[in-house]
Amino acid sequence: CVLCGRTDDCPEKYGEKKTYVEYDLTVHYYCLLMSSGIWQRGEEDEGIDGFLITDIRKEVNRASKLKCNICKKKGASIGCVAPKCKRGYHFPCGIQKECIFQFMEDFRSYCWEHKPVQKFPRNESGGTSQCTICLDFVEQLPAYAVLKSPCCKNAWFHRECLQYQALSAGIFFFRCSICNNKDKFQKEMLRMGIHIPEKDASWELEENAYQDLLQCYQHCDIRRCLCKKGRDYHQPDSKWEIKRCQCCGSRGTHLACSSMRSWEQNWECMECRSISAKSGAYRKRKKCSLATSENTDGTTLLEEPSPKSPRQSPGSQRNFVLQSPKILCQINSSPCLPLEHPASNRVTMSLSPLMSNRSCSMRKKHLGKQRREASNILKELKLQVNTKTTRLNIDAENIWHSALKGFRQRNFSPTNTIEVMFTNCKSRSKTDASAASKQRFFQLLMLHLQNSPLFEGSSGKNLSLDFQAVKENLYFEAGKMIAVSLVHGGPSPGFFSKTLFNCLVYGPENVKPSLEDVVDVDVAKTTKMIKYANSLSTLQSIVHECYEFLAAAGCVRPVTDLCDKDVLVNDILIHHVIKRILSPLESFRQGLKTLGVLEKIQMHPDAFSSILCYKPERLSAETICDLFTIHSSSDVNKVEGADFWMAYLQDVQSGESLVTLEDILIFVTGSSSIPPIGFDPEPTIKFLNRRYPVGNRLFNCLELPKSATYEQFKNKMDFTIRNTLRVEKE
């Protein structure tokens, strides 16, 4: 470079380095912009970006007579603009010495002694925070390498991260990554020396960046496509014309594959239909679907599967879903595989009055409704998960460290399908690796998190303050693990306090903690003494005795009236429960953003509070009955064995069996509770000619034996389930 004399080619630090052969010039763009004795006197297409060649040569000649105050070499073309300051330096030398260069207005430069600094209250400095761009830790100190957002109280950034973001986003998209403020944020960053180029964002300049949006989806996604020419075959104005989902447009079906006689008929894919089912809209459309589910020759086509009806609240009528002999003939050819069945071939059979007439409180009904809503939302998020697998090798005796190692491995991606292998297991079957092992892993992981030092409290837990965990970024990993567990079919934590949940949803500045959130015995005792002081003199005496504690918490205030105790208590609670853990909270929030979980939590707080703040409801015979779909090859009006199955569930619930309802669920699915997202595939029951029951965890299928008497059925169930689980435990 003719101005700084360096050969470095680093566009992020020195601007683009260009060589102009016709002028015999090589120059860094930033060296040219910041030089004190040159201005853009030409048009944009004249000279070099508006700088005339004659002016550049004059500036080079002027700088050759000036010595740099940093490297002591000639060519110092940049000078400090502070009055009476005569320091001069090269642009790279100024960067090295932490000078400030303002890429705006007159392109002023300030030396290391006169440079502008950010000012903020002393109580906001100290400690560590997380850079919201690179997610690494940053010291909350007024330093050159660290910048604070002018619009967000707790947003800190690395200078280098901000500069990279500014160069990528350009002036139109560069804004605060926390609150999206643009004007105030850009003004402060320009003042502190961040270069924001006047260009469009880099992602907007990519050639054909949005080409995929112009393509129409042409693929049949029905499980059994009837077209002999393949799923991608599309013939307009025929039965092989592909109809796209009217809601999302990202799924398709041949008209014939879904028994549609006309292109004008509306069609929804399974995912969209399941979402609309929660509003009751599916029930209204069900009658219409019956009329179109049969062909003219009387045969039934396998359509896009209708979603199973949302679980009804306790106390309402329960139904088993049975299949016609024709459909079950197809089932028997491939037992346990989850197939689609038209709604027109379903008949229902009511449960016994003992189950259907059980009363339930309004609170449980409301909670059940919220959990169903959360389940539908999680199923929507699961669409991000692809078929590529990531294997996690887990040591059950050291669950945390092995999980941490797996989540931090280079090839781990939350959008990949997770496969879990326990390294300390003697027998590893493919079934266990695919289903039960993953369920067990997430259950152990959530249990560990609940009892880990990252959280404090008894039942409803808040985040604790663990400096070592902050340093190792463990709060971020914990949030990431919870998000992955929810979307990948694992259990929910169920131990969040309302205060922690509200901090995640509404922000810590909008949450008022309660005395129950305080775990520290001494802090709770002091707070209670202040809260229940019955006279001004008593209150003043307590404040005097606890002065050191109040001063350390920043809660010292004059007490002139008894009602001041309420403000004082509130200050203590906010400091101890919220302000103290702001850094862990922000890190935890960033982790929960994995797969878009935090965004959904904030959009649907009522639904997610039901699974994050409450444990799963205790299993009942009613719940298990509603969970399983019965498939039978017998006459549709006589389901052989169904009565035995219902009676057995009632015996288990009443304690007249050697097993529990949880044992039954583990036997079939590998999970002791129903995950928030539900099971995939949905649990089914088949009555087959076999001696003992079999739990196929790969397909969540319970194969039950046909028995002559109920006693035989019950004994076989008890014997098989007890011994299977005992062997697994050993």
Automatic annotation (TrEMBL):
Residues 664-730 form the HECT domain. Residues 296-318 are annotated as: Disordered. The keyword Metal-binding applies. GO terms for molecular function: ligase activity; ubiquitin-protein transferase activity; zinc ion binding. The keyword Ligase applies. Pathway: Protein modification; protein ubiquitination. Keywords: Ligase, Metal-binding, Nucleus, Transferase, Ubl conjugation pathway, Zinc, Zinc-finger. Residues 309-318 have a biased composition (Polar residues). It is found in: Nucleus. Transmembrane segments: none annotated. One of its GO terms (cellular component) is nucleus. Residues 1-115 form the PHD-type domain. This is G2E3 ligase. It comes from Ceuthmochares aereus. The lineage of its organism: Eukaryota, Metazoa, Chordata, Craniata, Vertebrata. The gene is G2e3.
